[in-house]
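[Discussion] Sanity-checking designs against the backbone

I'm trying to build intuition for which residues belong where. Below is a structure token string of 289 positions. I'd appreciate it if someone posts a full sequence so I can compare it with mine line by line.
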């Protein structure tokens, strides 16, 4: 039972990170109808930005995360600005463009930080909590809490603010949104910036739990993409549920199948997607190609 609970907590922790990555994918997809294949690389840049600023300046980790979000938010705006002339004209080139930006970000990380990567010390120095023999790392609770807070703030933004309502309107029908005076380009830019910020938050939080390196974005991007598909691409509740579900699946597969854990995880994922291709909360979306 102790091993089960330990694995459960670890799965929920990583699942919270996957949910943040999945929400970043989903907010861009639901607004523009575009899958941002550079998203995993943005997660990696966020991890590097936060860890470098944290270790170089010794500021509180929360400030380092804010700096990382600002850096990646700017990157998101740049990507959207380059892709904007292609919107509603050449969807394939837009997809290829995001792949190209991902390769550029990964190459840039190698040039700036090197190819070897580095470990990040835990920003929480307190001892793990001991509950009935189950040791819960304090940092895991921090990750879960921060991810939950970010999710709640994003939901409030989308539902209670004019900018959020505009993004929702663009997601439903960009032509109708344009007709009522909503600036579609501005909403798309905001979607990219928010998605990049969520990527930075995910990368920053997972940095102390993993080894930060230029290729980490590939793994996290694939798992976040799978989580978004599992929950239903374009659905924000689906991204949350899919992220946690994928994290639990990943954790229990690692605990029971060791070196075959990735194979088992994606086999189960493939079976679920074959049974329900639209995901748990799948929504009908409009292709704007």
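Best answer:
Here's mine. Compare freely.
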């Amino acid at each position: 039972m102790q091993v089960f609970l330990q694995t459960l907590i670890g799965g929920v922790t990583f699942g919270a990170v996957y949910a943040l990555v999945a929400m970043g994918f989903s907010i861009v997809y639901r607004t523009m109808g575009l899958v941002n294949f550079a998203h995993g690389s943005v997660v990696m840049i966020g991890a590097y930005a936060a860890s470098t600023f944290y270790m170089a300046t010794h500021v509180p980790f929360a400030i380092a995360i804010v700096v990382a979000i600002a850096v990646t938010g700017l990157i998101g705006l740049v990507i959207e600005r380059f892709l904007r002339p292609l919107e509603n004209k050449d969807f394939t080139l837009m997809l290829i463009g995001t792949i190209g930006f991902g390769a550029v970000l990964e190459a840039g990380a190698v040039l700036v930080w090197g190819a070897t990567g580095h470990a990040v010390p835990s920003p929480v120095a307190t001892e793990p909590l001991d509950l009935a023999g189950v040791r819960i790392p304090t940092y895991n609770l921090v990750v879960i809490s921060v991810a939950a807070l970010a999710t709640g703030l994003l939901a409030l933004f989308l539902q209670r603010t004019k900018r959020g309502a505009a993004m929702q309107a663009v997601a439903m029908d960009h032509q109708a949104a344009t007709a009522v005076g909503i600036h579609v380009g501005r909403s798309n830019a905001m979607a990219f910036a928010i998605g990049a910020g969520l990527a930075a938050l995910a990368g920053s939080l997972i940095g102390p739990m993993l080894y930060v390196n230029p290729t980490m974005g590939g793994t996290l991007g694939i798992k976040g993409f799978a989580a978004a598909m599992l929950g239903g691409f374009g659905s924000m509740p689906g991204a949350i549920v899919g992220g946690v579900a994928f994290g639990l699946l990943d954790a229990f597969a690692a605990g029971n199948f060791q070196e075959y854990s990735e194979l088992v995880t994606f086999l189960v994922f493939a079976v679920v997607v074959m049974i329900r291709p639209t995901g748990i909360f799948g929504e009908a979306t409009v292709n704007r190609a």
